[in-house]
């Protein structure tokens, strides 16, 4: 049984019409459109490239459909990508207006990273304006990724000279001393999320050169005692796994993000 909605109606064509792009936009069994309907409370109907959207948020839904169609030649439109597009709609609670996203964008070597949502926008503003920032939240909310992006931006602008990546080495059934390799190689697997972000923003070759010259340094928290790191951007990841004593011995840099 199909329930019809009432309210404002938007009818439009997507040009240029392309069946492969339309299939990418709609997803398997139109799952992308179903997510759009559920999130915005609208009804989406289409015949080929002609769309008809009914509901109080029909205008916002049209904007999302057009934005997603624009990226179909180069990017796969997944449910996750639709979710991100919905987060950016102007009337979505907690959304950041497009002008503010551009203004607060983080410029790195391979493009611009923008805040998604009000909390990320506030997080970026605090990182840029404070000596010490604590980021607290569930996994996958961008705490580490945005901190690394700010570090790369500061390094490219020559506001700092070094990026220090620190993490408490919490063992998962094995002793670090029995892992193969030197100290850096023992700790590397624990810092993989930060490495992945650096590779994405700077590229593999540039990151490798920076590590070789100690512009980017990897250090376990236990080896940070007594160090004075001026003009450095220090990121302490997974700080919830530290003890009070470990936090007390942490160095005091010019800039510190946790």
Task: Give an overview in words.
The protein is elongated. α2 runs parallel beside α4, α6 crosses α7 and α9 packs across α10. The strands form three sheets. A five-stranded parallel beta sheet has the order 6-10-9-7-8. A three-stranded antiparallel beta sheet has the order 1-3-2, with helices on one face. With 258 residues, it is of the alpha/beta class. It contains eleven helices and ten strands.
Give the amount of beta strand, in percent.
Answer: 15-25%
Largest sheet: 5 strands, parallel
User: Rg, please?
Assistant: 23 Å
Helix content: 25-40%
Categorize the overall geometry: elongated
Structural class: alpha/beta
Rounded average pLDDT: 78
Low-confidence stretches: none
Strands of the largest sheet, in order across it? 6-10-9-7-8
Query: Helix and strand string, N-terminal first?
Result: EHHEEHHHEEHEHEHHHEEHE
Number of alpha- plus pi-helical segments? 11
**SS elements, strand count:** 10
End-to-end Cα distance, whole Å, is: 52 Å
């Amino acid at each position: 049984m199909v329930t019809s909605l009432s309210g404002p109606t938007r009818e439009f064509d997507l040009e240029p019409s392309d069946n492969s792009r339309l299939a990418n936009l709609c997803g398997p069994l139109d799952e992308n459109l179903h997510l759009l309907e559920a999130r915005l409370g609208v009804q989406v109907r289409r015949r080929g490239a002609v769309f008809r959207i009914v509901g109080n948020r029909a205008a916002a839904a049209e904007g999302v459909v057009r934005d997603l169609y624009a990226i179909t030649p180069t990017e796969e439109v997944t449910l996750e990508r639709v979710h991100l597009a919905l987060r950016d709609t102007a009337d979505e609670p907690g959304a950041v207006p497009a002008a503010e996203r551009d203004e607060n964008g983080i410029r790195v070597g391979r493009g611009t990273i923008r805040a998604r949502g009000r909390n990320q926008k506030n997080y970026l503003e605090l990182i840029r304006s404070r000596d010490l920032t604590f980021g607290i939240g569930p996994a996958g909310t961008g705490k580490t990724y945005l901190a690394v992006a700010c570090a790369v931006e500061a390094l490219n602008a020559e506001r700092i000279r070094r990026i220090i990546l620190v993490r408490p080495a919490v063992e998962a059934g094995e002793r670090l001393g029995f892992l193969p390799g030197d100290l850096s190689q023992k700790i590397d697997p624990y810092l993989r999320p930060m490495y992945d972000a650096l590779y994405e923003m700077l590229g593999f070759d540039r990151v490798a050169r920076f590590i070789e010259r100690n512009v980017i340094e990897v250090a376990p928290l236990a080896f940070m005692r007594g160090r004075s790191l001026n003009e450095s951007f220090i990121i302490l990841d997974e700080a919830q796994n530290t003890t009070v004593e470990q936090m007390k011995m942490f160095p005091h840099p010019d800039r510190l993000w946790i």
